Amino acid sequence: MANQVEGKVALVTGGASGIGQATAVVMAREGAVVAVADRAEADAAATVAFESFADACEAVRLFVERGFDQVTVDEIAEAADVARMTVFNHFSRKEDMFFDLDEEGREDLLSALQKRDAKTSPIEALRLFAHWAVAEKRPYIRFFEGGSERFMETIRASEALKARARMIRDELTDMLTVALAKAAHRRHPDPDATLAASLLVATWEVAFLEAHRIFHQSRNIKKANTAFLAMIDQGTLGVKAAVEGSPYA
Questions:
Q1: How many C-beta atoms surround the C-beta of residue 54 within 10 A?
Q2: I need a surface site. Which of 56, 147, 180, 227 has the fewest CB within 10 A?
Q3: If we measure between CA atoms, which residue out of 126, 139, 133, 132 comes closest to residue 179?
Q4: Please, which residues bridge with residue 10 across strands?
Q5: Which has the closest alpha carbon to 184: 137, 248, 95, 91?
């Protein structure tokens, strides 16, 4: 959907919950002006209000400016002009407001596996996905622009955020293990899938950290992106070697 709805007006029916709400969220993040229609008018209004707020990254801005642990959910709800429970309708925990792009990244990653060419191995499909995500300036790969260092500093200053980051890494590894096995038509659990997923997630983690380091030194987005993709390519070679002979390589 990237760039297809930017600047357009979208009317989403049944947008207060379920698939309708998820569609409204995605379209708002892609730059559309979203109107939500639903029998539950209050919930529909809350969806629009909170997504406009989230899309503007106001929650992250508050966290970065004041520190994650110093900002309360009540303050976020007040800034968004919604009820406290509306916030929790969108995010199960406060930490997920900071890592609000995690779900979108997971969806794109799974889509890359599911829609890959039959001649492309699962591991190669994920390497190509990284290059696509950088080229398309997907939001979860654009940490190198405006506020990147403060974003990382906010994580380092909060034990809660560091713990959630580790949890996300573990969740991503588990999700990728299952997705790889499914893509290769193997039963889960499969040790080759577990090994490949663990190494792939480790590669992405190192690539992100290296790209942030390069940007800190050079203030050059192109160099940071190049470093990120170089590490992805290098790590992918290692992953392929580790599971050579399997359908994942």
A1: 21
A2: 56
A3: 126
A4: 34
A5: 248
pTM to 2 decimal places: 0.74
What are the pLDDT digits (tens) for 14-25? 444 445 544 555
Helix 41-55, helix 73-80: angle, nearest 10: 100
**Tokens matching residue 176:** 């990728």
Q: Which two tokens stand for residue 126?
A: 């994920």
Strand-pair partners of 13: 37
DSSP code, position 70: G
pLDDT tens-digit map of 159-186: 999 999 999 999 999 999 999 999 999 9
Residue type, 69: D
Residue 150 Ramachandran class (φ > 0 left, ψ -120 to 50 alpha, else beta) = alpha
Peptide bond into 191 cis (omega under 30): no
Judge whether 24 and 15 are in contact, CB under 8 Å: yes
Tokens standing for residue 4: 């297809």
Residue type, 92: S
Q: How many residues does the chain have?
A: 249
Q: Which two tokens stand for residue 131?
A: 């290059």
Residue identified by tokens 């801005």 is 61
The token duo for 120 is 């492309």
DSSP element (H, E) containing 223: helix 221-242
Buried b / exposed e along 73-110 (16+ C-beta atoms within 10 A): beebbeebebeeebbebbbeebbebbbbbbebbbebbb
How far apart, in Å, do the first and last CA atoms of the chain sit? Answer: 29
Distance, CA of 199 to CA of 44 (rounded, Å)? 42
The domain limits of the chain are: 9-94, 102-242
Taking the CA atoms of the chain, what radius of gyration do you get in angstroms? 19
